Amino acid sequence: MDFEMSDELKKYRKSVREFALREFTQDLARDCDKNEVYPEDLRKKAVKEKIIDPSDPWKILIAVEEMCRVDPGLGISMTVPYFGSEVLLLYGSDTLKKKYLEPVSRGEKIMGLAVTEAVGGSDVAGIKTVAKKDGDKYILNGSKMFITNGTIADQFIVLARTSSDVEKRHHGMSVFVVESRWPGFSSNKLKGKMGVRATDTAELLFDNVEVPAENLVGEEGKGFYYIMTFFNISRIFVAAQGVGLTQGVLDRLMDLSEKYGKGFYNMEEIQFTISDIATRLEASRLLTYKAASYLFQFNPHPDLTSMAKAYAAETATFAAERGLEALGVVGATSDLERFFRDAKILEIWEGTSEIERLVIARTLRKKHQKEAA
Fold this sequence. Notes:
The chain has about 375 residues and is α+β, with helices and mostly antiparallel strands.
């Protein structure tokens, strides 16, 4: 068992961190947070310097971690343009991959994933958006809510119900590639989010949108399973967001406590806080890397993935909250305040912590039953 990364990955980590430290300025982070604007110029710089390597999942994980360490809002905004690409990579036809996936991989276009609805967040099987077959096309009607890249994406991976005559609720759903320029598509930017305001979030509306039949991804009726497979992948990267954010909190806690150390009456409490955060950070990172090592070798362990996502997300919230409490006004007037607001979403998107616990319990039960048989 080797806990060391290759020299290539170490070098890559160093280059990503240098980019983030140079480009993620405090002024930019504050401006994107205050005005809730997506940093498009920063994205173009990241593309030009090839900061994100979509061909290597380990490099994506490292990039997520290191960028979120410097600033979670800006860090996440640099990786979400590729959001949903795995669905096309795994299940899309060669034609769809060439038309939609390759431009995203080159940084020329932005992808989005549209699953969540106002009536179906964690309950994916409860979605109401429908796609009815009409000759050589599907007619798409419905809406999606809280969709990342909602007003800036060129295309979306959309989950819709294609059949209501099914025995189980999670049957009869399909996935399509839908272009934002098509007639009948519209989006409304959502403002006033608690955190990650540098990312674009919107409501999507589909009013008789005509989707060519060839834009069906994979087989009709298999959409639920495709999306669940995607979540099992994307949760690893949310875990990496949590690891990076926690490391960023620890960095600031160390720096600020050293800078203002003599002015704190509770230095012992700060030291305890540093120790607690560092311990949970190490556990989160090891769990995330273990789950990733199985996933990236095409041998996913859903229980480990959900453990990593839930624990790393909750650790990030714990770290941000405890860091603010320990430093008081010094922390509240630093960028730790933004880290605190950015942390909470990690416990919600890509499956809430409660959903992760259900996945863990169900997976363990199946393993137990198999071993007992």
